[in-house]
Amino acid sequence: xxxxxxxxxxxxxxxxxxxxxxxxxxxxxxxxxxxxxxxxxxxxxxxxxxxxxxxxxxxxxxxxxxxxxxxxxxxxxxxxxxxxxxxxxxxxxxxxxxxxxxxxxxxxxxxxxxxxxxxxxxxxxxxxxxxxxxxxxxxxxxxxxxxxxxxxxxxxxxxxxxxxxxxxxxxxxxxxxxxxxxxxxxxxxxxxxxxxxxxxxxxxxxxxxxxxxxxxxxxxxxxxxxxx
Length: 228
Known about the structure:
Layout: E1 5-8, H1 14-18, E2 27-31, H2 41-51, E3 61-66, H3 71-80, E4 85-88, H4 94-104, E5 107-114, H5 120-130, E6 141-146, H6 164-173, E7 178-180, H7 189-196, E8 200-203, E9 208-209, E10 212-213, H8 215-226
Parallel strand pairs: 1-2, 1-8, 2-3, 3-4, 4-5, 5-6, 6-7, 7-8
Antiparallel strand pairs: 9-10
Helix pairs in contact: 2-3
């Protein structure tokens, strides 16, 4: 079975990226949406230059995270920081996703917010958005994240993992890779992978100390994922 792929999201610091150059990371994420991890297009461009110096056999792809962006914002970012993937975390429909894919020639990841237990009525409504056939052949991956009422994701909290098979069935049927995010860290990612076998895992706050990326936690997370 192929190793689960790893996405480290919310990078802001050049020195942290430099310390990751030998690690088997598959995707590096930069947050352009409102967040304490938010970066500017110019700042992301400086960070992207570090990816060119990656020393592991596989260089990670760059992912820009946005929530309900307009085309002018995406155009500005892409002019200053050439991303490989645009990840959409809001209520973007399939038409918008397809337009982004066509205009910028990038992969498009669509994130969906999954609620915790006790909010099934809201979560079921959210599920219907992504299970739509309109996304088939448009998005390059589906990403599950914990619902956050302010930022749409990045809450650092896990969602009800028992909901994963619902999305997995859809993603397998249409051959769309499934990523899981939301509250992952070195101590729980092994359980997630063993039980649900997602295509990829996405971590941000779970590899931080005092709000900053901690290279030792990054290494521990990657090691835990790749050994399974």
